[in-house]
Amino acid sequence: MPQCTADFEGLCLLYQAMEVGLHKIRAMARTNKELAEELIRDGYLKSPLLIRAFRAINRKDFVPKEFWDEAYGNYPLDIGERQTISQPLTVAFMLELLSSQPGENILDIGTGSGWVAAILAYVVSQNSGDQNVGRVISIERIKKLSESAEKNLRKYGFIKKGILKFIVGDGSRGYEAEAPYDKIIVGAAVQVAEIRRSPEGRRRTAAAGERIPIAWKKQLKVGGRIVAPVGNSVVVVDKISEKKFRSREYFGFSFVPLVKG
Ligand code: SAH
Question: For the whole model, what pTM was predicted?
Fold first, then answer.
């Protein structure tokens, strides 16, 4: 973009800002298919099954009416109760890490709009070769959101077929009743404000993997995986054995907080 000269700097900067804004609007995906294409092009969506799921589940079905014209924008949108439907690129990134497969038993913590739960229900219910059809349990602490998510899902038939179940409750302790899970995905961030003391008595910040609630780790099968936000990171935890976990962290995201209780 050309430099603004001193003479008309204010006007010039305003014009440039408008150009940037207009470019954003012109570039915004207009259909669910275009959104999926954008996520593939930008390298967020990779696996064929997840690509099919993103195409099959229409984000517009999970967005309030007043934002329908922005349903395919790559940013979070307000869904009421001071919560948001997550940004598409973040959802794609986390779901690629989760790598869910047909036939799996999955826990989704923080239903929100139900969009992530719907994508997962599509994935686990694809033909897995055997008779084992997977299941998604999606838990949300705000009853109103859980109810509207259920409405959003109606046309897809997953609930009727017993593939997807919504629970109202506190997911910070997981959901024991349907455990163990092959995978656990979380849509709200574990908070990182507190500082722990190391065994030597020094103050230190715990590694992100250590902040994952023990209940989630316990409810995971050996060989299973948790993908959860911790502060501004996405953390992947693999359960190697009953006692052994391995984690890695991806920095630079933004999430609503996980609220206990
Ligand atoms: N995956 C969602 C986005 C979720 S936003 C989607 O596709 O729309 C995170 C959600 O987590 C919010 O709805 C918030 O109410 C919920 N949440 C926060 N703390 C929670 C807790 N302890 N248990 C269950 N849900 C929680």
Answer: 0.89
